[in-house]
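Page 42, continued from yesterday. The earlier attempt failed because a stray header line got pasted into the input along with the sequence. Redoing it now with the clean sequence only.
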Amino acid sequence: MSNQHDIPLDLKNEFAQEWAEFRRPWKLFTLALGIVLLVFGSYYEGAPDWDIPISFIMAILAYLTAPWSLRVILMRQWRRVPLMLLFTWFTVDGCYALYWSIKNPAALALMRDVNFLASLSLYGLCGVVWLFRGSLQALRAELLQSIKAVLHQRK
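This time it went through. Structure tokens are written below.
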């Protein structure tokens, strides 16, 4: 007899797959590279709402949610759209608004509208970069296979 609090097996498998993807070296490397670029940007851009902590917060949240959010759309998992929208909003705007409402409400009021579009664009890009499930070698093989298929169709 199943306990009502048990997580369904398919959901456990999905979590296990996602956890394995988060630990892939090429994905961790690109996350680290993105954070480095965000930190450098916070120094050189001079925007009042761009600092090191928010760079880490938003990058890590995007790493955890952007590929899944994009996958929900691509796989037409309509029942998951409300959760996907919540994750997207929280990563793109919610955590930003919460952080800056505590740290510097004036910066939030000044920059929130501008930040939303920039962050949403980066979120989408992160989803594309981290969407592939597999090793870097497998990604390379799939890309080469796709390129060969396109070239073959043109002949």
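Notes: The two ends are 60 Å apart (CA to CA).
Reminder to self: strip header lines before submitting.
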